[in-house]
Amino acid sequence: MNEKRKNETPLLEVDHLAVTFYTPHGTFNVVRDVSFTIQRGEVLALVGETGCGKSISAFAIVRYLLPFHPGESRVDGTIFFEGKDLIAMPDSELQKLRGNRIAMVYQNPGTSLNPTMRVGLQMEEVLKQHLRVESKQAHQRTVELFDSVGLAEPDRIGQRYPHQLSGGMQQRVMIAMALACDPDLLIMDEPTTGLDVTTEATILDLMVDLKQRVNAGILFVSHNLGTVARVADRVAVMYAGQTVEQGPASAIFKRSKHPYTTGLLQCVPQPPSEDETNTRLRSIPGDTYAPEEVNLQACLFAPRCPMAQEMCHTEAPEILSVGDSHQSRCFFWNNVHKGIWGELEPRDEGIRETAEPVLNANKLQRFFGQWQRKYILFGPRVRPPVRAVTDIGFEVGGGRTLGIVGESGCGKTTVARLVAGLIPRQRGDILLRTEELAPMIEERTDQQRAALRMVFQNPTTSLNPKLPARHTIVRSLQKLARLSRKDSHERAEELARAVRLEPAYLDRRPEALSGGEQQRIVLAAAFAGESDLIIADEAVASLDVSVQAQVIKLLEDHQRESGTSYIFISHDLGVVRYISDDILVLYAGHIAESGPAECVLNIPSHPYTEALLSAVPIPDPDATPTRIRLGGAVPTLRERFQGCFFAGRCPRKIGPICDNTPPPVHIGPGSPDHAIHCHIPVEELIKLQSD
Amino acid sequence: MTMIRSGLVATWRSVRNTFRLIFRTWSGRIALPIVLLHLVLTFFGPLIAPYSPTAMPESIDQYQNLPPSPQFWLGTDQYGRDVLSRVMCGAGSLIATAGTGALLGIILGAVVGMSSGYKGGRVDEIVMRVMDGLMSFPTLLLALLVLFTLGPSRFNIAATIGFVSMPAIARVVRSTTLSLKNMEFVQSARLRGESTFYIIFRELLPNVLPVLGVEASVRFSYAILSVASLGFLGLGIQPPSPDWGLMISQSRRFLVVAPWVALAPMGAVASLVIGVNLLADGIRQATRMAKEDKHE
Fold first, then answer.
1. ipTM for the assembly
2. Distance (Å, whole) CA B26 – CA A546
């Protein structure tokens, strides 16, 4: 009886939360209307795109708004933590709750730890501060906590400094620290965003595990629907500072009752469905609602909504109950279904036939730095160069897309820069059709430069901040398409329309454009030269999902119309799977696997590809996660591998042969182009991976 | 035509906004009147001065070293010339020389810093070591050395000041360039096949300008001090032209009997340097404020 009543009052109850920032330029309603509840032992995920106010809402709970806005701010609404009003609570009392009963884990573990202190000492300090325990006890408890978050050698890891730990280990230490005082509420702000997929998967596993062990409520803030589906019990979707939908995870992902949620779900490239038909990606038109826009009496999503009626533009919808603890902020929630974003179109596979190769790269090699001899106190210490790219070769077919995947530090960006000529290669050759390309871009001919274009990851730094957006397009046209000044301005406007931008946008400075608009300008410039090959280096990584889908669709349309080939580099296997015809999987500067997309992504695959695939979070709460996880960190690349480059982390390592002998190349059964660099024979891989 | 007009309107608006922002800071409020006063003297000093700065009265004895009085507000010097008029007319040459010197330094420093930083590698290494070498000389000593060989003239003074202030500016500009040159917009300019010259002056320069603006204000006040110091040492503008440094140097001997002759040019130099420094401070604060406003 007593136990039951305890469960009835929610651990945290946030009602009509609003946060206003006051600046010399006016007041901004960064959070407009957010309501959610968290029970003990439950994970509530707060999802939304950049600038929707999800992190601010989470930190407003503990009144920690300084990182977002140094000036005056105001929090309205009610926040009840175990029945106590946190908004009315004086600072001194709230301070006692913070870190003790309410703990926080931040996005960037690297900057949250003190770099000058051993992590064990930092941990002990927290314990002594909050629990007032003796040194010896604190040390013991530290070891226990490190063990509970799955850190190997928990008794020795405390001796290390933060920089000696990998990102995943740092985040584990942060989580251990948050758990130190047995908090009742854990606020996690994008805890896996800065990590590689394989590391992310292990952290998410840990969270699923913690959820069962710790009797705390967890508020999990994320922009990634895949990670949310993996850990959340309940999901609150935010848009423009409002919660637009809230409900159990399965209801949100399967029977969403808000058009924004259904749209968002469809922007994520899905793994191919059972019947193997590829469907085109869909995107949400327009850009996210900015906090400086006036709060009209209207549904804030109406401008982007496909089912908006007249009423949506004149009246603000309230939160309506649409089912068992499932709420939606939509007048027409009853009519919401997946089809509102248009019928699924099958993808046009017409021109995806192999033509003659556009680019042929052979035995590329690039090391960074030189052999260094340093005298540190006792004798010389030799520091070899970083072997970023060792012997990589590939081919890009005409009108085809080569996807290059791998974790950070695998050499994928270096490969892109070698091909583009931004950094000179040390060995190997690159053929553009039949011409040999010079190592440096400055030594190549104008035709070669026009044939090979590149799009970078960060759209903001891809445009000169002091020049209008048109500059890069116009100059590309003048230099590469040899257009006159006047013609180039006209053509620039055509190109802007082709990337769905009004020509008036061309006269704006980059700072006045959103990330998606900036990237579309960059694409327009890349399309200017009528190139044969465009290298897209993480071109969609920094964009929100709804915008990411727009950019991917533009790339697809351009390829269909002009037959341009792409090298598409990404750490996101879902996106690569969607866009690529061929895939190259890199690890530690070596090729792990290469071949046509359908062969690489199916059985048999290289153990590393297998691990990557099983680490990708799928936006479906019912998906059973495959249990292949990589421990350890990416090797430093300063030493030559005696055996297989992947031996150190390989979950399918077969014995000393992996450490001694470089792996042979096996040809997969599906296609003669499918190459697997592994000691395990293909038949064995098939057997191992079908189980 | 309308485009030019709208452009002018926009420029005027941004100038007005800048002034407003500067005036919102304390240092700006103090500095603006001081600097404006000096600027007025630069252009109109000889016109509004009550007497000629060089004219000596026929009976020097009568007018020698007179204390401040309604007739001579700041008194007279040992040749009986009106100190106020000399101070007013001295502003022009000083500010012009210092301004040209600072400007030369900025241009030289920007070109050297941007080229060296962008080129990188061995070129950068050599250029920057030369700059380090120049910087290790005391500025005034280096200037004296150059002026002894070239001989004092207004242009030579300006050129010398430009030369000695170049290394510090080059250093600052180079560090900004280093952080800029790895940004993607520079890479994409390389990918389009732009020349190094184009990249430095069209792509990088607009981004270096804000740094140069701050540097310019600092360099200008240093240049004023340098010109005045050189004048004091006798290597500046030659007599009888009114020069603040020279005036201080000449009035040294009469410091006890006629302190006003030395105090007036001293005050003028000090107020100008303080004004310029405070104004630079105000501008810096104002741009920071503008930036913060934009970000929120």
1. 0.80
2. 47
A23, A444, A448, A461: best mutation site toward chain B, by most B Cβ within 10 Å?
A461
- Residue of chain A minimizing CA distance to B181: A461
Do the two domains A2-101+181-341 and A398-585 of this chain adopt the same fold?
yes
Domain boundary assignment for chain A: 2-101+181-341, 112-179, 398-585, 602-690
Tally of CA atoms within 13 A in the half-sphere of A626 that contains its CB? 17
Counting as low any pLDDT under 70, the low residues of chain B are 1-7, 10, 55, 57-58, 60, 65-66, 72, 240, 290-296
Strands A84-85 and A73-81: antiparallel
Distance CA B9, CA B14 (A): 9
Of residues A289, A238, A290, the one with CA closest to residue A264? A238
* Alpha carbon A402 to chain centroid, angstroms: 20
Taking contacts as CB-CB distances below 8 angstroms, the residues of chain B near A467 are 203, 206
Beta bridge partners of A365: A427
**Strand, coil or helix: B4:** helix
Q: What is the CATH number that goes with domain A2-101+181-341?
A: 3.40.50.300
Q: 3-state class of A121 per DSSP?
A: helix
Mean pLDDT of A62-72: 79
At residue A352, does pLDDT exceed 60?
no
Spatial distance between the Cα atoms of A650 and A628, rounded to a whole number of angstroms: 10
How far apart are the CA of A502 and the nearest CA of chain B, in angstroms?
20
Q: Which residues of B touch A522 (CB under 8 A)?
A: 188
pLDDT for res A517: 87
C-alpha distances in Å from residue A446, one per residue of A40, A359, A437, A449, A477: 64, 17, 12, 5, 12
Does A24 touch chain B if contact means CB atoms closer than 8 Å? yes
Inspect the interface and report whether the beta carbons of A449 and B187 lie closer than 8 Å: no
- Tokens representing residue B22 in the block: 């500067």
In whole angstroms, give the CA distance from residue A319 to residue A242. Answer: 10
CATH fold of A398-585 reads: Rossmann fold (3.40.50)
- 8 A C-beta contact, residue A295 and residue A29: yes
> Which tokens go with A677?
């660099």
Mean pLDDT, chain B, rounded, equals 82
CA–CA separation, A459 and B43 (whole Å): 48
Question: pTM for the complete prediction?
Answer: 0.82
Q: Which whole number is the average pLDDT over A223-228?
A: 87
* Secondary structure of residue A595 in the 3-state scheme: strand
Contact (CB, 8 A) for B285 and B25:
yes
Contact B294 A511 (CB under 8 A): yes
> Alpha-carbon distance A335 to A142, whole Å?
53
* Tokens 């485009």 found at: B3
Our measurement of the distance from residue A429's CA atom to the centroid of its chain's CA atoms, rounded to an integer in Å, reads 33
Rounded Cα–Cα distance for residues B81 and B53 (Å) = 7
pLDDT in tens, B131-184: 998 888 888 888 888 888 888 778 888 888 888 888 999 999 999 999 998 889
User: Would you state the torsion angle of the CA atoms of residues B91, B94, B100, B106, taken in this order, to the nearest 10 degrees?
Assistant: -100
CA atoms within 13 A on the CB side of B49: 25
B190 and A69: CB-CB below 8 Å?
A: no
Residue B140 burial by Cβ neighbours in a 10 Å radius (0-12, 13-18, 19+)? middle
